[in-house]
Amino acid sequence: MLSPSSNSTKKVFSRLAFVGKYQADGIEEHLNDLAKLVSNLGCEVFFETSTANHLKLKSYPNKSIEDFTEAIDLAVVLGGDGTMLGIGRQLAGSNVPLVGINMGRLGYMTDIPIGDVQTILPKIIAGEYEADTRTLLDAVVLRNGKTINRALALNDVVVNRSGISGMVELAVQVNGSFMYNQRSDGLIVSTPTGSTAYALSAGGPILHPRVAGILLAPIAPHSLSNRPIVLPQDSVTSIEVVDGREVIVNFDMQSQTNLESGDIIEVRQSDKTITFLHPRNHSDYKTLREKLHWNEYPSTF
Fold first, then answer.
1. Backbone angle region of 292, left / alpha / beta, with phi > 0 → left and psi within -120 to 50 → alpha
2. Is the same domain home to 285 and 249?
3. Domain residues for 284?
4. In b/e form, how buried is each residue of 157-180, taking b as 16+ CB within 10 angstroms?
5. 93, exposed or middle or buried, with CB in 10 Å at 0-12, 13-18, 19+?
6. CA 151 to centroid of chain Cα atoms
7. DSSP letters of 69-95?
8. CATH number at residue 225
């Protein structure tokens, strides 16, 4: 266990909150070990309230996510990309950056392995990091002209059919200009962050996180001429449900709204952002190479 003196350690971040994925094996031990490490650096330590309650963590005070603004300098998330998505939406616009620590497989957002965190986290606290600001989508669901839901998405907004229904027909406009009527299994509206998620499986391109754009990717379109397209960041995409049974709209695949024919989903880039912190010399290309196995070659080569 690292325990440097708080008097000799430079600190850019002095108030840290730990957020954990409840179901991860050994999560309690990891959270307590990291909290002790950071406390020994002279930092004020909190556990996020839901994390503390679920895991019965009582060794440090807790603080709810709603109270992080102005009270927390850095949120440390242990889990996977799904955990980061949920916390990222809640902290968007708060100016509280996130550090993602993966508990298993390498993630796109949780890029620090748990085995390296005791070396890397003190360096980040001391200011040795690279900041990465991500955009979010703001989606409004309209029925008869009235808002029935509004949600943020860090990855994507997905309009799709249920697993047992047929195709859906969607009418898509961009900035008030008609683009197409599309018969398909659905449509993905993605941020650059989400371009490596569902949109990638649907045949969409990978967008670098710093690309200023919004990706539309059809899901199994009836016409092969319906192709993915990258729109300017100031675009407003309007998706009307023309026809289809059991149509839903998902936000980061973590919440959803049931739709009816005539419902409209308006999606635009949010004015809120979230910042991820990475270790020095972080490479998005290295992450892609490892995650997508670009570094693996057939044995015949």
1. alpha
2. no
3. 15-128+280-291
4. bbbbbeeeeebbbbbbbbeeeebe
5. middle
6. 13
7. TTT-SEEEEEE-HHHHHHHHHHHTTS-
8. 2.60.200.30
Q: What are phi and psi of 140, to 5 degrees?
A: -120, 130
pLDDT reading at 298 higher than 70: no
One-letter amino acid of 107: G
Whole-angstrom Cα distance, residue 58 to residue 235?
Answer: 47
Query: Model's pTM, two decimal places?
Result: 0.92
pLDDT tens sequence across 81-104: 999 999 999 999 999 999 999 887
- Domain-located, residue 6: no
Strands annotated E in 1-145: 15-20, 44-48, 62-63, 74-79, 98-102, 112-113, 129-143
- Structural domains of the chain, count: 2
| Opening angle at CA 125, ends 211 and 104, nearest 5 | 65
Residue 84 lies in a domain: yes
Per residue in 25-43, pLDDT (tens digit) is 789 999 999 999 999 999 9
Report the C-alpha gap between 92 and 270 in whole angstroms: 10
What are the residues facing 248 on neighbouring strands? 160, 258
Catalytic residues: 81
